[in-house]
Specification:
CATH superfamily of the largest domain: Tetrapyrrole methylase, C-terminal domain
Helix content: 25-40%
Mean pLDDT: 94
Distance between the termini: 42 Å
Low-confidence stretches: none
CATH topology of the largest domain: Methyltransferase, Cobalt-precorrin-4 Transmethylase, Domain 2
Structural class: alpha/beta
Order of helices and strands: EHEHEHEHEHEHEHEEHE
CATH architecture of the largest domain: 2-Layer Sandwich
Strand content: 15-25%
Number of strands: 10
Strand order of the largest sheet: 3-2-4-1-5
Radius of gyration: 19 Å
Length: 248
């Protein structure tokens, strides 16, 4: 089987929709989106991508946005199984990559447990795409040999993060879902001894018409002088100083 082969009856494809711009879809993703019976899509999937759906395809919103009412993961898994059991060819369309903070692993296991045939189509993850669109390399030979991708939800009282060990091991940090907790993230990092002037970039809605980038420092983020609007990727580290605003 090739990844872009037509979906079989009662098959589910877990498809990465990339950061937003339809031109950044993989060839396999574009083909399956345009040839399926139903698309179950996340809130972050752009209209440009959804407009590629086949005429007559059913579009089902299964949005999951932090801090807002959303469909439970259990319900989403059950819906995928139900649709496939009806003989539908299903595309489960997820922003970015299904397996990078996308809960694609949970859906894969649910489908496998139910005996549903499935395939996985990786997508460009926003943790790489957003900095690139802003002209920021997430790795640079003069700055870092390591890189950490993190969820902003960990900047809380119940955090599982060892912040001190984190900054000692990773000169560059890329936070998904970091908008709401940005002041807490910044304060946690300052408490480890990172300099007040450590640069950070907030990239909102990368590759869409609403995209914008804010360059600031840890101290400005900790004090609330700068805020992040969801959805945003937050990049922290000296690679921010390597930025070239190539699209402006």
């Amino acid at each position: 089987m090739k990844l872009d082969d037509p979906l079989l009856t009662a098959e589910v494809a877990l498809v990465g929709a990339g950061p937003g711009d339809a031109s950044l879809l993989t060839l396999a993703a574009a083909k399956l989106i345009g040839d399926c019976d139903v698309i179950v899509y996340d809130a972050l999937v752009s209209d440009d991508v959804l407009n590629m759906a086949a005429v007559g395809a059913e579009l089902i919103l299964a949005g999951k946005r932090g801090g807002r009412p959303s469909t439970s993961q259990e319900d989403i898994c059950e819906r995928l199984i139900e649709l496939a059991s009806e003989g539908k060819r299903v595309v489960r369309l997820k922003g970015g990559d299904p397996f990078v903070y996308g809960r694609g692993g949970e859906e894969m296991h649910a489908l496998a447990a139910a005996g549903i045939r499935f395939r996985i189509i990786p997508g460009i993850t926003s943790g790489v795409a957003a900095p690139a669109m802003a002209g920021i390399p997430v790795t640079d030979r003069s700055v870092n040999a390591t890189l950490a991708f993190l969820t902003g939800h960990e900047a809380s009282e119940k955090s599982r993060m060892d912040w001190q060990a984190l900054v000692e091991a990773f000169p560059v940090l890329v936070f998904y879902m970091g908008a709401k907790n940005l002041p807490n993230i910044a304060r946690c990092l300052l408490e480890t001894g990172l300099a007040d002037q450590t640069p950070l970039a907030i990239i909102h809605a990368a590759t869409t018409a609403d995209e914008h980038t804010i360059i600031a420092t840890l101290s400005e983020a900790a004090s609330g002088q700068v805020t992040a609007q969801s959805p945003s990727i937050v990049v922290i580290g000296d690679v921010v100083n390597k930025r070239i605003s190539w699209r402006d």
